[in-house]
Amino acid sequence: MDGSVDWRGMDQSMILRRYDIELENLDLPENIIQKMLPSNPVLRDVARSVTNLRFRDITPAVIHALHSSISPIRIINDGLTKGMEIVSTLYSKHLYHLPEVMMAARIMEIGISLAEKQLPGGREVKGTVVMHAAEGDPHDIGKNIAAVMLRSHGYRVIDLGKDVPISEVVDTVIKTKPLMVSGTALMTTTMMAFPKAAEQLRKNGIEIPYMVAGGAVNREFAESFSTGIYSDRAPNTPPIADRILDGSDWQTIREEWSEITGER
User: Fold this and answer.
1) pTM of the model
2) Residue range(s) occupied by CATH 1.10.1240.10 in the chain
3) Euclidean distance between CA atoms 90 and 130, whole angstroms
4) CATH topology of domain 128-261
5) Which of 238, 142, 157, 154 is nearest to 187 (CA)?
6) pLDDT tens across 78-91, in order?
7) I want to staple 46 with a disulfide (CB 3.0 to 4.6 A). Which of 79, 112, 156, 212 is the partner?
8) Contact call for residues 132 and 161 (beta carbons, < 8 A)
9) CATH 3.40.50.280 domain position(s) in the chain
């Protein structure tokens, strides 16, 4: 034998095959978008205007849907909101980032405004959520993304901003009677504002769920004080809010957290 290799009959597709690249290709944005788009072709165009960040396409897409006898509420729920849901998925997979999320949100809002004009009395609001970044914490990017996702799902968001005093959170909740409070903290020095605010709310007879999120907190911390619940990713916020809207209290949210969020 001369030591040479006979390559005849060998499956050439198995040579230098990069399985990691093949798996990455499955997560390409376009593949995810295609898989999640609505089946109705008119609503697909509406949703794609959002997912592909096409400002110039959103108005004609919504007008075409309205002229196609698709109800405004269906355009909002199955077209615009679906598009934002896809963007949320891309964001959770780190394929889209904050600029893309904010652009998509603006495009969705343009479309919703057009569709709402055809709804008597406007779009029905599901409920109100008060959001804030903890007192002393100047970071609010995660909060802003979660707020976008809540609004896209039909919630009214009262956004108090960043570095919000505990007293302002408590006063706002007392006045507006939301179904949930949401606070974010990226600094461990600020996260203790949440149990303090929750305790003040309890003293005022308010025991609504107090969702905490951000890099400084975890589920164990969230569940260390009464009414505290946890969200580890912005896309989890709307399904948790939906459960609360359906009547679940903070204890039930804790018990069913993995089922609601798909996390462990």
Assistant:
1) 0.74
2) 26-116
3) 26
4) Rossmann fold (3.40.50)
5) 142
6) 999 899 989 988 98
7) 79
8) yes
9) 128-261
